[in-house]
């Protein structure tokens, strides 16, 4: 309707001279059809939007999966340090230097091999002696995040032989 009014307004302002043929602009004909250019532009725009949304969804799913794996790896590394604390509380001599894996036997933690496997995660606990009453523990968990990269979570802590009574240093 708006185009028809514009056409009649233009027709009144610019009358047709003798010998000229009146040409109605395509927008003023009142047709509801689309030109091929409009169809191509709208299809292209639709394809770009759909492609962008699909990429966002796929990236979001991958990020969620990687975040879940990272959380699980952090929990496994923390569990390794807690297991070492438990073994230390039983007997400080249980904390032997070197790389260790962990296992449970009868609800008791013990060392087993140089690493242990839990699902797609490989866990290793490395113990080194700092001094006779202190050990450094490094818990490392590695896994395959996706085809292009590996993930790693690592925590370090120190444990002391808290049962040994140490006299205060002399000034």
Number of alpha- plus pi-helical segments: 2
Indicate the proportion of strand residues: 25-35%
* Radius of gyration, whole Å: 37 Å
User: Could you give the count of β-strands?
Assistant: 7
Q: Shape from CA axes? A: rod-shaped
Overall helicity: 25-40%
Span between N and C termini? Answer: 100 Å
Structural class: alpha+beta
* Rounded mean pLDDT score: 85
* Main sheet: strands, sense, barrel: 5 strands, antiparallel
Low-confidence stretches: none
Give an overview of the whole structure.
The protein is α+β, with helices and mostly antiparallel strands and 171 residues long. It has one domain (36-160). The protein contains 2 helices and 7 strands, in the order ααβββββββ. It is rod-shaped, with a radius of gyration of 37 Å. The mean pLDDT is 85.
Observed structural traits:
39% helix, 171 residues, 2 helices, two-stranded antiparallel ribbon, five-stranded antiparallel sheet, single chain, alpha+beta
Topology:
Layout: H1 2-13, H2 36-90, E1 98-100, E2 102-105, E3 108-111, E4 116-118, E5 121-131, E6 134-144, E7 150-160
Antiparallel strand pairs: 1-5, 2-3, 4-5, 5-6, 6-7
Quick overview:
By secondary structure, the protein is α+β, with helices and mostly antiparallel strands.
